[in-house]
Design goal:
234 residues, alpha/beta, Rossmann fold, Arc Repressor Mutant, subunit A, 4-stranded antiparallel sheet, 12 strands, 18% strand
Length: 234
């Protein structure tokens, strides 16, 4: 695990605490150091400060996601308002924490992200499952891959877990709270408003026209429904 933060005291405190929790931790001061290290090795998870000198955390995160890299990222910020959290999630962060925070909570959030990324009941590879095709897309639940016309579509672990929930519940309206529980786990800190952001990101991946969704349709006042044939609901 790598902690990227330009505050040397906080960086030292976090690397020491997380090391005592049993993690192998490397501290980095800025995006330049991060990109240099990523050219050599990869961590299991990245704790990334939003306010960094040079390239800020959101720019670095966007660069990773645009390049198809689904490295788990937990964002840190000195500003805890909902807009910042939503922007971080829109860029593909797996979780988001505002400073100041308790190191114990950070450790718990890290453990939750890693559990979601490992084999388990939420978002895990599903054995002996045929790929699910809809429109121009095919979702391979075993390989955890999304394809369009045989070409891989970059998709993060969180996006895959959410799409897998939808294809497992076709034509069944699901509330935002139920989607959070099924895709992220019952202990997730993701709220219903943040789920709307996740749906918006997923629509940009799978919909021919995200402004007029065919497959991930809104159930007004309730949540969303997956319609594999793309036909309007009656």
């Amino acid at each position: 695990m790598w902690v990227v933060d330009d505050d040397p005291e906080l960086r030292t405190m976090l690397t020491t605490y997380l090391g005592q929790e049993g993690y192998g931790v490397r501290g980095l001061a800025d995006g330049g150091q991060l990109l240099a290290r990523l050219g050599i090795e990869r961590p299991d998870l990245l704790v990334l400060d939003q306010m960094l000198p040079g390239q800020d955390g959101l720019t670095l995160l966007r660069s990773l996601r645009d390049g198809g890299d689904d490295l788990p990222v937990l964002m840190l910020t000195a500003r805890g308002d909902a807009v910042d959290r939503i922007i971080g999630l829109e860029q593909g962060a797996d979780d988001y924490m505002a400073k100041p925070f308790l190191p114990r909570e950070l450790s718990a959030r890290i453990a939750a992200v890693l559990r979601r990324r490992q084999a388990g009941p939420v978002g895990a590879p599903q054995r002996n499952r045929d790929p699910v095709a809809f429109g121009e897309l095919k979702l391979d639940l075993e390989a955890r891959q999304l394809e369009r016309h045989g070409e891989l579509v970059p998709i993060t672990s969180g996006e895959f877990a959410l799409l897998a929930v939808f294809v497992d519940h076709p034509h069944r309206p699901l509330s935002r709270e139920r989607l959070v529980e099924l895709a992220r786990g019952p202990a997730s800190a993701i709220d219903s408003r943040s789920m709307d952001v996740q749906i918006s990101r997923l629509r940009r991946l799978v919909e021919p026209d995200p402004s007029r969704p065919r497959y991930l349709q809104t159930v007004w006042g309730y949540g969303y429904v997956f319609v594999p044939d793309g036909q309007p609901r009656r």
